[in-house]
Amino acid sequence: MECLILRFKGAGIFNPKWSKDKVFDAAGMHDRKTFGTIDVPVGCLSKRHISNVLHVLMGERPAPSIRASFIKPIESIRKLADGARVKIDSLITLDKKGNKHYLKETKTVRKSIPNCWNTASHSITLNGINKPLKGETLSWELIKVYLGDVLYQSFLKLVKTCIGDSALKERVEDVIGLLSSKHNSAVRAFIAECSEACKEPMAHLLRGSTEAAAFNQSSDVLVRRTVCKGVEEISRIDGTIYVPMSNKDLDRVRKGPGSATILEGGVVFIEGVDDFSDNLISDTLKPVE
User: Fold this and answer.
1) Which residues contact 228 (CB under 8 A, 6 or more apart)?
2) Which of 142, 203, 211, 221 could form a disulfide with 194 if both were Cys (CB 3.0 to 4.6 A apart)?
3) Which element (helix H / strand E) includes 57?
4) Distance of alpha carbon 103 from alpha carbon 91, whole angstroms
5) 96 Cβ partners below 8 Å, 6+ apart?
6) 3-state secondary structure of 288
7) Could you list the pLDDT tens digit for every one of the 289 residues in the chain?
8) 3-state secondary structure of 16
9) Residue 2: which of 274, 251, 248 has the closest Cα?
10) Where are the domains of the chain?
11) What angle do CA 121, 124, 126 make, to 5 degrees?
12) Per-residue DSSP letters for 99-122?
């Protein structure tokens, strides 16, 4: 029996994380947090990943690894993946608890829409007390867009009346902090205007509270400042896949594209063919389900 030797480089592995977005497949819509993942142990690969690689190398369409689909894997190719062996060449380290890990790098990734809200907090002084406020630093322009022309003019009038014209040159968060410490009728009247206009985050700030003053998730689309990119840790691994197969299967591989992708951004290419033996697959592992 012959053995097809495949080399793969730069195969990326992300740690599965909880997310609020949805997954769609032939069975319908699913919550990402309840959807399954392929848990690949350090030092090995999954049979489903190897099966998809072999499908591509033989000119066939791969089947989704997890999602329900009308496309099913070809049984003869899937059985070849069952008999494959894997050897990882990348460095594997041990943490203090003895758990195995690959070396990791930081990568910029796109976020799903529900995870794009800016949840970072910064400090704002209200009633003389520093309090955390979610979202980016407030600006005069953002407040203008959020309040609208009529309510914004009322806010400017309030600032001039309670603090003075010079306050318009200061940071708007400092101005809001000063107004929150003034419990006069003008401030209370403007708070009532904000509440009536469904601008509760502004009303809460002027009352001295940040608990429900999240401008980052305001109902007003114009002030929803999102962060569509983030950073994640990813492991990049290299290695070799050994696949025992018949000459008939090798002929299908010879007629295929000669390369495929694997995991996140990894590339698989054919290194060669050799006679299958125990020596050839020494120091290798069986792929997991």
Assistant:
1) 110, 111, 116
2) 203
3) helix 47-57
4) 7
5) none
6) strand
7) 889 999 999 888 877 666 667 778 777 887 777 776 777 788 888 888 999 999 999 999 888 877 778 888 888 999 999 999 999 988 888 888 888 888 888 877 776 666 666 667 788 888 888 888 877 788 898 888 888 889 999 999 999 988 988 888 899 889 988 888 887 889 899 989 988 888 888 888 888 887 766 665 555 555 666 667 777 788 889 999 999 999 999 999 999 898 999 988 899 999 999 888 888 888 888 888 7
8) coil
9) 274
10) 2-107+232-275, 117-223
11) 135
12) -EEE-EEEEEEEPPGGG-B---EE
- Rounded Cα distance between 81 and 85, Å, is 8
Per-residue HEC secondary structure of 174-227 comes to HHHHHHHCCCCHHHHHHHHHHHHCCCHHHHHHHCCCCCCCCHHHCCCHHHCCEC
Tokens standing for residue 143: 């407040």
Amino acid at 78: R
